[in-house]
Amino acid sequence: MGGSALGCALARAGLQVVILERERHFRDRVRGEGMHAWGVPEAKALGIYEQLREACGLEVPYWDIYIGDRLLTRRDFPATTPHGSPLFSVHHPVMQEMLISTAKSCGAEVRRGAAVRGLRGGVRPVVTVEQDSWTSEIEARLVVAADGRNSPARKWGGFDVRRDSDDRVFTGVLLADVEISEDAWLGVMNPSIGQEAVLCNVGNGQIRAYLGHPRSAGHRLLKSHDLPLFIDESVRTGVPRSTYKRSRMVGPMASFASADCWVEHPYANGIALLGDAAATCDPSFGQGMALTLRGARLLRDQLLASDEWENAGHRYAEAQHRDFMQVHTLEQWYRTLFLSTGHEADIVRARALPRIESDLNRIPDLFGMGPDAATDEIARQRFFGEI
Ligand SMILES: Cc1cc2nc3c(=O)[nH]c(=O)nc-3n(C[C@H](O)[C@H](O)[C@H](O)COP(=O)(O)OP(=O)(O)OC[C@H]3O[C@@H](n4cnc5c(N)ncnc54)[C@H](O)[C@@H]3O)c2cc1C
After folding, report:
1. Rounded to an integer, what distance in angstroms lies between the CA atom of residue 62 and that of residue 177?
2. Overall pTM surpassing 0.90 (yes/no)
3. Which of 11, 42, 262, 342 is 20 to 30 A from 319 (CA-CA)?
4. 276 C-alpha vs ligand 1 centroid, how far in Å?
């Protein structure tokens, strides 16, 4: 998503762009399919929104958020965000295919089946690439590594990686014939067991279902025969069992560590990290795609504003990190209030939740505004019911 979105924007501006993509065909890797509303203006700013919407996007106005079996809010996003945007669902591999072919039609050279094997920073950074059993080197003015959550480019580029504690797991699976309303996502957070379930309509009658749980719960959700356990745990979290009555699995199931993982300054020596390579967000809060598009937009703007790309790279890195840290702060607040278990967490909830229920504006707007939501001390105190 990050590489193609940026490649598209830079090629359109007349720059010479080469995109190296390892996969010849994108497959379902179990990734993000629900982009939060604040990603929509980013996609529009990059000039890819209409193509995405027409090819594979579903605009979803509502999100029903439950705490256990109690409805906290049905939020109408177009009506309650300053940019008037809906939630936006895509089927991830279709979105990838569509974006990379758009980049090509914008003028980028796209090489598929091209696996990057190494990277050297410098005034003219160099990429080592293997394609059809041939290894070659490409020198460039700038290398953007958008190689995802397991990015080896971070190591090749000498970037230090920081990581939150790895105490939660997030599992996803693609289902058909799930009974939820067409125009809403469903999110259920159950603090008494520290679990969450998210059902995200991705079109064609298919639903991406996610389950987040503490690692200590010990669930092993890896293969198709684990679906009954996935459903049982989603029901225990608070989703009505009838939702899954006729459901069947139409894609792989996969589990991931939920911990955020990031580089503090994702630019050095002619190499910029983008998307998950720069900062991998906890998928529990679904910020990754919007943050990836924000990063692509920030980098595009810096590169097109000046010929001094060394300075442009550093300015991008500062802005990207600032945005990520805003999201990171809010994720930590949400995790503490909605997903932490134990006596102390219960005390905080007993104080905060009744106030939130009577004034939903106490919830900092991570989903509508992302990094532009308030994270100051007043916002924190209001969220945790301290004032
Ligand atoms: C279970 C799960 C659920 C998620 N849910 C959400 C959600 O609901 N909402 C949301 O916004 N985000 C979600 N995310 C996050 C979202 O999927 C990512 O933030 C987003 O896909 C990042 O895009 P990217 O372009 O940085 O990386 P990727 O999508 O991982 O793309 C990296 C690309 O680089 C290619 N590549 C990697 N290595 C090489 C190499 N050596 N040579 C050549 N090519 C290479 C890969 O083939 C791939 O095409 C979720 C993530 C997970 C794991």
Report:
1. 20
2. yes
3. 11
4. 6
